[in-house]
Amino acid sequence: MEQKLLYEIDSKLKNHGYATRTEFIRDAIRSKLSELEKEQVIKKLAKFKGSLKGKGR
Q1: Is 27 inside a domain boundary?
Q2: CA 25 – CA 36 distance, rounded (Å)
Q3: Residue 57 located in a structural domain
């Protein structure tokens, strides 16, 4: 990793309750995976909503 990125991580560790870089990185990965999953669900819902236009009411 770039030194600048490591420095940024190190500066956030204690302020946000992380004991190690590894703990911080694991949490960042989990957050990103969750974000990607939410985006995928939103796209599916939008597609489903689009398929309902003109039906019903």
Answers
A1: yes
A2: 16
A3: no
* Residue 28: domain span: 3-51
Q: Could you tell me if residue 45 is inside a domain?
A: yes
How many domains are there within the chain?
1
Q: Is the dihedral of CA 35, 36, 40, 41 positive or negative?
A: negative
Q: What is the pTM of this model?
A: 0.72
4-42 pLDDT tens trace = 999 999 999 989 999 999 999 999 999 999 999 999 999
Residue 56 lies in a domain: no
Q: How deeply is 53 buried, as exposed, middle or buried, from its count of CB atoms within 10 A (0-12, 13-18, 19+)? A: exposed
Contact call for residues 8 and 25 (beta carbons, < 8 A) = no
